[in-house]
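re the bet — no i am not wrong, look at it urself. input seq straight from the record:
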Amino acid sequence: MLAIIAAVGFFIAFLINAAEISTNDTFTSTNIMLLGLTLLALRLGGIGAGWSARGRRR
């Protein structure tokens, strides 16, 4: 789930950068890309991964 949100954030950052949309200092394309990288790092770190199969028994 976090990876999908990060991908959407990267797409929004690309649109802001490609269309040269003037935004305030909070919503610049760089800040949105950094937020996406943070979400990807959390996903790779194991946060938001859902249920693990370690607790299952045969």
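see?? The helical segments are 2-18, 29-44. told u. also The chain has two helices and no strands. so pay up
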